[in-house]
Fold these 2 entries.
Entry 1:
Amino acid sequence: SLPQVIECKAAVAWEPKKPLSLETIQVAPPKAGEVRIKIVSTAICHTDAYTLDGLDSEGKFPCVLGHEGSGIVESVGEGVTSVAPGDHVIPLYIPQCNECKFCKSSKTNLCTKIRTTQGEGVMPDGTTRFTCKGQQLYHFMGCSTFSEYTVVAEISLCKVAAEAPLEKVCLLGCGVSTGYGAVLIICCVAAEAPLDKVCLLGQTQTNLKQLQRAALESCHKGWGVSTIIGVAAAGQEISTRPFQLVTGRTWKGTAFGGWKSRDSVPRLVNQYLDGKLMLDEFVSHVMNFDKINAGFDLLHSGKSIRTVLNY
Ligand code: AHE
Ligand code: ZN
């Protein structure tokens, strides 16, 4: 029988700067090239908070936020071959189509296949799969994990080892992959990069723009590299004296740690299972999904590293 509309619980962001509302929403079946997932766990990232605070220039409301999750495939749309119902999966806000110019280059992970529609908060066909109280809800970062069920493009999903604990590997959907990948990139580019100094700055500087400038300027003259991974609010800019670059420092950035997402995340999951990658240490709080606004409060207060919400 064909998949039907599912009614489920979700945390809806009706408008910026308001707490999320727990609502019953309708999630339409996946269309061609799409997959519907039952989300098991989701963590809260600063990017969700900054979007909810109205600071993301691409933010669209009302929407279902959340982009650091894990779950189980419920149903698949026409033509989907890489995953099947029952598979354990992680949604990927940077997809991997393997067809675009960016995927074909080894220099970047920034797949562009569905980037425009993703930024507009809709599926690749230009429509949304979420409704609540008769209103369409926008998707977010191609993931929308703050819903018990969500729909994502097949290229925005990777299958992971069934034995991996979903309440831990959700962190590989954003935070840990981003930080780990950025550190590996820094180490590859310049083994002498003063990582200890950058970490110290992170503890004392609260202003992101000042921190990013200080990180560059603390780089070694001649070869030091500073890699930007943190997003800033709409209209914010970073600056430094050209002298800092003239004298051999490199200012660059990466998204999602530079990982080609569908190839790499299943491997990162396996590294965790083999005890070679830390995840548990980053989970500072665990709570029921219904407590999501308390999770946002913890994040704003600086008391949490990662809050994992279980449905
Ligand atoms: N939409 C924002 C930019 C937001 C942004 O830079 N997002 C990061 C991920 S944040 C994860 O917590 C990213 O990977 N961006 C890649 C991309 O293609 O957006 C804006 O400024 O408009
Ligand atoms: Zn994030």
Note: The chain has a mean pLDDT of 93.
Entry 2:
Amino acid sequence: MTQRVLTTESGAPVADNQNSATAGVGGPILLQDQHLLEKLARFNRERIPERVVHARGSGAYGYFEVTDDVTGFTKADFLGEVGKRTETFIRFSTVADSLGGADAVRDPRGFALKFYTEEGNYDLVGNNTPVFFIKDPVKFPDFIHSQKRDPFTGKQEPDNVWDFWAHAPEATHQVTWLMGDRGIPASYRHMNGYGSHTYQWTNAAGEAFFVKYHFKTNQGVRSLSSEQAAELAGKDGNSHQTDLLQAIERGVNPSWTLYVQVMPAAEAAEYRFNPFDLTKVWPHSDYPLQRVGRLVLDRNPDNVFAEVEQAAFSPNNFVPGIGPSPDKMLQGRLFAYADAHRYRLGVNHTQLAVNAPKATVADNYGRDGLMATRNGRRADKNYEPNSYAGPAQTDAALSAPLAVQGWTGTHEAPAHVKDDDFFQAGELYRLMSDEEKSRLIANIAGGLSQVNRDDVIEKNLAHFHAADADYGKRVEEAVRALRED
Ligand code: HEM
């Protein structure tokens, strides 16, 4: 085997990678040692800003295969034919901790999926939970501040976590979910994924439907108890990464079956609660799950930094036939992600291999910027319209229009018959077995009892009481018992 030559970034051979150049033996280092200067300077620039949330994650490539006909609901080309396969990239993540945090923690998990379709990249940036803590994006920075490290103590504080929830009754459903058995998945392979928001599908005839996505794991849902997780996190902080990497390296390719719930658009206004409220699920009895296809992961990235850390998913990357609903949280997210990417990765992040379209090419008049590698072909004009056969609009509607009414203003969502923040938390509680309920109560009480202020504890207890009388009573008793200890 021929020996590869070590070079500088400009490709020149390096003579010595063990000794810096000095003025005489034992003398100071020379400024002319280009290899040393370049090596140190480059090293200083290896880190980029981590994601402000979901900093810690793992990625994998795979494919999505359509198994059932959904052309009655969407004209999206990649869903247009049974058997059609589309390459995908997924990034799983935890939410609250920084890049170095442990995997086995109680936290929602991100489930961000990129479909490299022939009509452009479609990003579905979901979680392993069907609901979320809040329903208006203006609350998101406050919510995240309360869950991440405190600026003074430098660690997550139960006081902040529960103080936010005390002021957010709409979080009760998701808190019940998070503190229950599914709050700590055994691995990324053993959890479901949800689009969580309501999205809009439009079919070829221009008819609109509202949909919710459910990816059911074919590995079975498996979770860890708080005690198991604490032990595992201490032994192997990278337990989810290890599991995913090794499974795919062994050829044990994880898969998920995608189902959707479909609501004809005309039913939304009269539904008994706001169908665009991210803190609520649609009962399957109203809108049953309909199978769409399966997602298979079969290839690990070659380089974690290049492909996972630099991966950029944005909920506003849609393809024709799929679009946003009026869900306010989703609307806020349509702005937030690409903005984060421009800050974190730069304006040309879409040109990185993991983010660029694979089954088509991006062809537009965007030019230049830091680190540009794609700038149009030689004689291409950089303005539009032009007389030189440059790319032009299609005039084909991407998705059906959404009806709006009324005046601008900082409104609450439109009222529906049953909009209260607690009934679905109560329903989730009543679905649990006695053992599940006991673990849920112990997890909530373990956190809530550490809160210093009584008024914050009382406000949280009131939410559990409002969800279900037995739920409230048991949490209250457990918290009081721990506080008296
Ligand atoms: C990551 C904002 C709600 C799932 C992020 C990032 C931002 C953000 C700025 C970092 C993006 C990056 O640097 O690449 C927001 C805002 C929200 C919101 C403003 C509410 C208004 C949600 C919800 C979900 C979600 C409801 C799930 C249903 C994710 C996931 C990631 C992420 C999975 C990680 C994506 C990746 O792996 O690169 N979010 N988020 N977020 N968010 Fe959100």
Note: Strands lie at 57-66, 85-94, 109-117, 120-127, 193-194, 199-202, 208-217, 255-264, 290-299, 322-324.
